[in-house]
Peptidase M23
Amino acid sequence: MSFFHLAKHIMLYLGLAIALFSCSSRNTPAPVSSIHSSSVLGERNRDSIKASQYLVKKGETLYSIAWRANSDVRKIARLNKISSPYRIYPGQKLFLVEPKVKKTAQVSKTKVSHKNSTKSSTANKKNSTKNTLASTKKQAYGENVSTRKSYQNSTLASEKFSQKISRWQWPVKGKVVEYFSNSAQGNKGIDITGRRGTKIKASTTGKVVYAGNALRGYGKLIIIKHNEDYLSAYAHNDRILVKEQQIINIGDVIATMGDTDANKVMLHFEIRFRGKSVNPLKYLPKR
């Protein structure tokens, strides 16, 4: 075999080897990304407040702010000395957590001799004993009855509002596609699919405390207060059929199903107890 033919064969084999190598490289699988997980995270990218202070914006209510802060509306009202019905205005500064108070040590500048302090201590003990006896007599004669009644009434009122709601109903018929989760990035309610325009009903009796679309990730949202402890929310509505401060009964139509701020037509439904998310399936009847 001549040198020319030998070189030709070597070049041919070399070309085949390069071709095979390039084919195997192209067949290497591409990195896999989870489309499902990213879409779910997109759905759960809902508005929240983590700051200790907040400036009220137009269209917000104290209930919607408490909802975003995952806090009890009564706590925020107490921190800011806001009484019921919790009226706020745009630009108002709110404290969302208890301000930190610096502790300062108090130093007495007066020096007292041992004898004087002993006499003073003895006198204070005698006066304290007399005051205790006088206080006991006054209570026995009923002079503090009004205070006791006030305390009892407030306790009864608190117990009344803390009673468990006896009846809940499903807000809409449909398939539950996302369930409640306690994890940080988990779903804080349940997602129910259905057709656009399907009627959404109140899960139980209450008062509408928010109706609007100011909360990112919820779309057109309705929040209903049922008592001093329980709230429910209905998100991604197509149309809102109620107004704030409106009293509604269990089963009343409050909205129609839609996909506002969502990637599919569905209802996102939440229940909160004292500002914290709870699993709606523990309250809704089994079906």
Helices lie at 3-26, 35-43, 62-68, 73-79, 114-140, 145-161. The first helix runs from residue 3 to 26. The domain at 40-95 is CATH 3.10.350.10 (Membrane-bound Lytic Murein Transglycosylase D; Chain A). The radius of gyration is 33 Å.
